[in-house]
Sequence to fold (114 residues):
Amino acid sequence: SPNFSRAVVFGKVVFVAGVMGTKPGTRDLISPDFEGQCRQALDSLKASVEAAGSSMDKVLKCTCFLTEASDFETMNKVYRTYFPNDPPARSTVVVKELVLAGAKFEIDCVTCLP
Fold:
């Protein structure tokens, strides 16, 4: 059994676990480059948010983890395409490494149900 849940619902609040830029259903990175991983991670986050019964426009808070501060502007460019209006609160942290070798980006969020 997995060590975590993709999402946990508490009342009308949904805590969505961190996702990386892996091919859906695998631990294989979609791409070695940051932008490809970032897009895939946000696609996976969107899928988790929607599977929990919410939508991206209801996301309240995101936490982003990058392994390189130099990827911050690229992250912002990609992130804006998923949150074009009234973006959620966000924290961004640069970390030494992520648990999956080669991963450059991870994101989690808190969202709410309608």
